[in-house]
Amino acid sequence: MERISNLILIDDDTRRRAIISHALAMGGIHVEPFETTCELADAWPRTGIILIHDRPSAIEDLIEAMAAHGQWFPIVAFSEGPSTRRIVQAVLGGAVDYLAWPVTADELSTTVGGSIDRAAGIGNARLREVMAQARIERLTRREREVLGGVASGLSNRLIGERLEISPRTVEIHRANMLNKLGANHTSDAIRIAIEASLVG
For this UniProt entry, which residues form the secretion signal (predicted)? Predict the structure, then answer.
């Protein structure tokens, strides 16, 4: 069995965390157990695969933490007797794989190996999307409208006509929008809008 260099386990159930850690250690897998995503954030790892117990908002909170650190780790979620709907929601939320617990160390190793391959492209794209959406949320409604116009290739005059404001007011909103997005150029703002799925 190929050795996994670092498996990060996040599970708020002490007993289950101990059982999983022991089972994986017996299979030759090094495990770093954490109770919560907040605890993980205090000791942010450099590399690893994250195995997280799928409780309400667990994956969402983890992805937000990864976005804040600007670093993506493949996420494998697990729970006991998960429904198909629950698995689909976890994968749509950012998990690259899902396991029904209990699982053998060999099955986990195989799953994690496949997760690494799948996560290479998916993870980076998902992280960019989350970070872009976080930036867009800083904008006022009017600044978002201006960004939408800019991303559609409209001039300040045409954006102003569409929004019924003066070109000068568009310029002010545009400058504020660029500043809040941390964008040096209009092209940066358009890229962020695309990554956040604000425009097609």
Answer: none
Which of 95, 105, 102 lies closest to 31, judged by CA? Answer: 105
**Residue 169: exposure state from Cβ atoms within 10 A (0-12, 13-18, ≥19):** middle
For 56, the domain range is 7-127
Whether residues 105 and 177 share a domain: the answer is no
113 and 169 both lie in a single domain: no
What is the side-by-side order of every strand in the sheet holding 97-100?
A: 31-34, 7-10, 49-53, 75-79, 97-100
- Which amino acid belongs to residue 28? G
Q: Where are the alpha helices (DSSP H) in the chain?
A: 14-26, 37-41, 58-69, 84-93, 105-136, 141-151, 156-163, 167-181, 186-195
CATH (domain of 46): 3.40.50.2300
Q: What's the sign of the alpha-carbon dihedral 114, 120, 125, 127?
A: positive
- Asked whether 34 and 2 are in contact (CB, 8 A), the reply is no
> Sorting pLDDT into bands at 50, 70 and 90, what band is 68?
confident
pTM tops 0.70: no
Residue range 99-153, pLDDT digits in tens: 998 888 778 777 777 776 666 666 667 667 777 887 898 899 999 999 999 988 8
Q: Which of 19-33, 158-172, 180-194 is predicted most confidently?
A: 158-172
Q: Are residues 13 and 77 in the same domain?
A: yes
